[in-house]
Every structure is written in C-alpha cells, then in structure tokens.
Amino acid sequence: MTKENKDQIIIRTVSDMQTYARAARLRGESIGLVPTMGALHAGHLSLVRRARAENGKAIVSVFANPMQFDDPGDLARYPATLDADARAAFGAGADAIFAPGEREMYPEGFSTFVDMTGISDRLCGASRPSHFRGVLTVVTKLFGICAPDRAYFGEKDAQQLAIVKKMASELCLNVEIIGCPTVREADGLAMSSRNARLGADERISARCLFRALNEGKAIFESGEADPGVLASHIRSILEAEPRARIDYVGIVDPLTFETAPSVRAGNLIALAVYIGDTRLVDNTKL
Ligand code: PAF
Predict the structure, then answer these.
(1) pLDDT digits (tens, 9 = 90+) for 141-156
(2) Domains and CATH numbers, the chain
C-alpha cells in the first residue's frame, strides 16, 4: 500500500485491497465503490462524491480492463493518468484508490468469465461482441475484491448499467447498483474519457450526438411513435455532420434493450457514433 496522507491510500494488490475492505466492514463502515478505467473527469467525480456521501468508505478502482477492448489500438490510446486521477479522486472525497496492474487482475492461466445472453448481444454488444463479457468479468472481480455495499455507474453507459444491475440481481451479489445522471459539457456533449482524443474540429462535430438526441425527443413529443421513422430522423441529423459515422441508433426498452413495435415514454434513444476514430455513446430517456 502507498500512503498518500493519514486517510487516503493507493492500493495496488488484491490482497491489500481485501484486507482494507474487511477492516472497514469489521468497523461497521459501509463501502461505496466507483469502478473506473482512469482518465477521471467531472462525471466520474460526481459518482465519487455520491459514494462519499452515502458510505463510510469510498473506494475508486482505476483499471483499464484489457478484456473489454476488442481493438488493441483503442486500449493503447486509452489515457493512463494515475497521479492526476488520484489527486482528483481524493479531492472529491475518495478514501482509497485500487489501481492493480494487469497481471494482478488476470494472473497467468486466468480462465473464468462472466457472460450474459440477450441484452448483452444488442447495440454495443452487437458492435463489440466480447465487450460486455469483459465488463461483467472485471466488475464481478472488483466486487469480490472491494466487497462494496453500493456501486456507482454513470447513466451515459445505459446498457452497461442495465447489464450490471441484472447480473448483480441474478447472481445475488448483495451489492446495490446505483445509476447516476450523465454530466455534460456546456454545449451538451456527455463527459467521457474519450473526449480528450477529439481534435478541435472533431470536438465541435461531436455536438451532433446531443443535437440528435434532443431533436429525436422533440419529434417523439410531437406524436411520432414509429421507431423506424423516429430512428431515420435521428440518423439524418447525424448524417448531416460530415465527420460523424453512425455505429447504431437504437430506440429501445431500458431493461431489455429491444426495440418495441411502438415507441413509449420511458424508452431510450441510444446512440454510438464515431467522430473521426473516436467512438462516442450517449442516450436520453423519452
Ligand atoms: O465504464 C467503465 O469505465 C468500465 O466499463 C468499468 C465499469 C470501469 C469496467 O471496466
């Protein structure tokens, strides 16, 4: 363990993290976990503040999980900024940062996976076939290591949030999964670690996601309930932006991520769009 100051600590090994969590629980303190892949931004910090407010101990995990990247180039481009992340997380109230190396999480010969059928094959799961298996495996492992009472995830990744909730419930993991609102830049772009990769022109182009979500919502509110018609309006807004390439536009049930024959209040508009080489996701509830 590395001591930052009296109360704040960076922990590098599974066994040290388990010892820390066990001691907190023995003292009767609840544990809130914020799982991250680092490159922390204001969205992550809102989760840390909530974990701090609702628990005796707030733990932030920082691990860019190779198992959930289908493209090794995407993983290589993922920013590694542990010092800045630690300062930001401690500033937002974290008590401990769990920052294991890859071999610590996946020792030689590691061969156990957590997977889900149905919901995890749709939208992001269709574009990135082993992505959710990687997410579910690492999240299960983080729950085993950090023993949280509550775990906090952003609503920006709505499908991930739904899948983690379903897994925690179906496997009786005894952890409450809490979804927290998407934090946005002033022009509406959802905060994401990937935004840092956008060039200046791409950053302006990226506004098309929020614009498409808002216009889709307005069209629904004016009475359009046909998912095909609504999706093609949204696609045309995105296609008007020359730097945007659509991965998917989904109008889906928020639990199953299936498209209903008729759009209803409570459905999600979910988007994944490449701006240049950077894949961004966002969603809004109707
Ligand atoms: O949302 C993320 O940053 C990751 O998918 C998570 C939940 C930390 C698992 O690696």
Answers:
(1) 999 999 999 999 999 9
(2) 2-180 (3.40.50.620), 193-285 (3.30.1300.10)
- Compute the distance from residue 160 Cα to the ligand 1 centre, in Å: 8
Residue type, 35: P
Question: Between the CA atoms of 142, 146, 149 and 155, what dihedral angle is there, to the nearest 10 degrees?
Answer: -40
Ligand 1 atom closest to the Cα of residue 35 is: 8
Tokens of 79: 């920013």
Looking at residue 161, its pLDDT comes to 98
Q: Give the three-state DSSP class for 189.
A: coil
Question: What is the average pLDDT value for the chain, to the nearest integer?
Answer: 96
Residues marked as catalytic:
44
User: What average pLDDT does range 111-134 have in this prediction?
Assistant: 96
**How far apart are the C-alpha atoms of 214 and 24, rounded to whole Å?**
44
Residue 243 C-alpha from the chain's centroid: 24
Instruction: Say how far apart CA 215 and CA 82 lie, in whole Å.
Output: 38
Q: How far apart are CA 234 and CA 240, in angstroms?
A: 10
Number of Cβ within 10 Å of residue 60's Cβ equals: 32
Ligand 1 mean position to 129 CA, how many Å?
A: 16
Q: Is 172 left (phi over 0), alpha (psi -120 to 50) or beta?
A: left
User: What's the sign of the alpha-carbon dihedral 204, 44, 63, 116?
Assistant: negative
Look at strands 31-36 and 150-154 and give their pairing: parallel
User: What confidence tier does 6 reach under pLDDT thresholds 50, 70, 90?
Assistant: low
> Can you give the pLDDT at residue 139?
99
Residues whose CB falls within 8 Å of the CB of residue 190, separated by 6 or more in sequence, listed in order: 43, 156, 182, 183, 184, 209, 210, 280, 281, 282
Q: Give the closest residue (by CA) to ligand 1 atom 5.
A: 135
Q: Which amino acid is at 74?
A: D
The CB density around residue 257, as the number of other CB atoms within 10 Å, is 23
- Dist CA 189 CA 195 (whole Å): 9
